[in-house]
Design a protein that fits this description.
This protein has 147 residues and is mainly alpha-helical. The chain has a single domain (27-141), classed as Orthogonal Bundle (Arc Repressor Mutant, subunit A), CATH 1.10.10.10. It has helices at 6-27, 32-44, 49-56, 60-72, 94-118, 120-141; strands spanning 47-48, 76-80, 88-92. The protein has a three-stranded antiparallel beta sheet with strand order 1-3-2.
C-alpha cells in the first residue's frame, strides 16, 4: 500500500476546504472567484485588483473577468489609486455593498461559529503553519530550495 506524504494530506485537506467555499458560492448562485472577490472587498474594503489576486491566490485574468462583470452589473466602480495612478481601486457601489452583504455576512457568521469551536490558539497555529508552508513552497518555486 502506498504511503501518502504529509504534503499530500495537506493538499487534500486544503482542497476540500476550497471545495466547501465553492459549494457555498454555488448555494449563493455565484462562482467561486466572484465569492472570493466579494469576500475580499467586504472584509478588507477598497482594494486593487493586484491585492485581490495576491491575497486570495486567484489568477490575474480571473479577477479581471470578475471585476469587469461586477462593473457591468453596477456593483462596483473603479477609482484611481492614490499611491499608484496606474492601479485602480475596486470600490463597491451602494447596490454592490448590499449584494455582497447578503452573500458574505452569513459566510462570516458561519466562519466565526467554526472558529469559536476550534479556538483562537489552534486557529493561530493553523494560520502560522500554512503561512510558513506557502512561504517555503514559494522559495522552492523560485529555485531557492533546489539541491
Amino acid at each position: 500500500m502506498h504511503q501518502f506524504s504529509k504534503a499530500y494530506e495537506l493538499l487534500s485537506v486544503w482542497s476540500k476546504g476550497t471545495a466547501l467555499y465553492a459549494r457555498w458560492a454555488n448555494r449563493c448562485e455565484v462562482g467561486y472567484p466572484e465569492l472570493m472577490v466579494l469576500y475580499a472587498l467586504h472584509t478588507r474594503g477598497d482594494l486593487t485588483q493586484k491585492a485581490i489576486t495576491e491575497e486570495f491566490g486567484l489568477i490575474k485574468a480571473t479577477v479581471s473577468t470578475v471585476i469587469r462583470d461586477l462593473k457591468k452589473r453596477d456593483l462596483i466602480i473603479l477609482k484611481p489609486c492614490r499611491e499608484d495612478k496606474r492601479e485602480k481601486l475596486v470600490v463597491f457601489t451602494e447596490t454592490g455593498k448590499e449584494y455582497a452583504e447578503n452573500i458574505i455576512q452569513p459566510l462570516l457568521e458561519t466562519e466565526e461559529r467554526i472558529t469559536r469551536k476550534i479556538g483562537d490558539e489552534r486557529m493561530e497555529q493553523i494560520i502560522d503553519t500554512l503561512d510558513l508552508y506557502n512561504m517555503l513552497f514559494e522559495k522552492e518555486l523560485k529555485g531557492a530550495g533546489r539541491k
